Amino acid sequence: MRRDFRFEPLVSSPDARHMRTGVIYTPHGIIRTPAFIPVATAASVKALTVDMMHDIGTQAILANAYHLYLQPGPVLIEKAGGLGKFMNWSGPTFTDSGGFQILSLGSGFKKVISLVSEEATVAIKSTRHAFVDNDGVNFKSHRDGSLHRFTPEISMNIQHKLGADICFSFDELTSLADSYQYQEEALERTHRWAIRSVDEFRKLQSENPDRPYQALFGVLQGANYENLRRQTARFLNTLDFDGFGIGGALEKSTMSEIISWCSDELPANKPRHLLGISEPNDIFTAIEQGIDTFDCVSPTRVARNGAAYTLTGRFNIKSAKYFEDFSPLDPECSCYTCQNYTRAYINHLFKAKEILASILVSYHNEYFILKLVEDIRKSIEQGSFNELRDSWLKRYYA
Ligand SMILES: [Zn+2]
């Protein structure tokens, strides 16, 4: 089996010891890092075609194993030639393990998945939709309530069939409200699942040697405990992983520290992905602490509710005050939406419930974040990261 995957770190920064640029090489092309990976939950970046994604400079997309397992099923996607072929995306692809979505139905149901959640509470038993045991997780589908089970082996089989370039090991997401004792116990389970994930994934690859190489990333949990985060980074680094994902419910206040503990322990020659991020200031924090790639559903999710990013902050285009505003969404943006449409028109589209409203704002928002991360990458190369971060955040959050 040829390992058609590698990460080449390029420019490191005097501004922050873990921050760097680099290139990830995959069988479907390269990813220049740091990179924002738009989320294509069900093999579609909501409201956008792949041509649009190419136009705005998308390098890779991330789809969710959980959603694709429930609909249309991994067997169909395998028959179609894999995720990329199925959705007409020729570039690199990621799939997550399904663990996050499933466990979000568990003790953290509706509670811990928000990065801004300051007071996470454990969901009471009757509201849970997922139950963990030492071997795997039983869960109820969010679609129709049907019962399913994921184990590390099942997740690896699904991801192998989906055929993404970068896959993730199956892990247990815990809630910040869980006790330390539970975090420790869950982390040990995640370690055993990591070993099983590697074994199963490499077995599947050796059975299908003609397929393009799929990289496997180990997922770091450990909540907000330094010893657990460091311990898991050291342990996962002893296994046969091509890169790492930093998982778990991260609070805004501790995110920077948590990522720096993980980056301290992880090898410099393997890429680090942050699973799920929501706000522009988190992007600066993550990259500063050594994150190479991250995914984020926010640009399209908030767009469908009418929220648009601008360099002076986020605003909602549905507000009545834009009824007669003939300026673009963001006067400083050079995307297709901003070059061709007015706030008044988009305000009207939302009121008239026209699908085009979601398309135009999603396009702008994805472009906005991709452009921001590209600017950050250039600033690292030019040694001006701190200036960009300070001036950018000052304007955005003024
Ligand atoms: Zn724009």
Describe this structure in words.
The protein is α/β, with parallel strands linked by helices and 398 residues long. It has two domains: 6-296, Alpha-Beta Barrel (TIM Barrel), CATH 3.20.20.105; 307-396, no CATH class. It has 15 helices and 16 strands. The longest helix is centred in the middle third of the chain and has 28 residues, at 180-207. The radius of gyration is 21 Å and the shape is globular. Bound molecules: zinc ion. Zinc ion binds at residues 329-330, 333, 335, 337-338, 364, 367.
CATH class group of the largest domain: Alpha Beta
Count helical runs: 15
Question: Looking at this structure, what is the CATH superfamily of the largest domain?
Answer: Queuine tRNA-ribosyltransferase-like
The number of E-state strands comes to: 16
Radius of gyration: 21 Å
Strand percent estimate: 15-25%
Termini distance?
53 Å
Bound small molecules, which ones?
zinc ion
The overall pLDDT, averaged over residues, is 93
- How would a textbook summarize the main sheet? 6 strands, parallel
What class, by secondary structure content? alpha/beta
CATH architecture of the largest domain: Alpha-Beta Barrel
**Contiguous runs where pLDDT drops below 50 for at least 5 residues:** 110-122
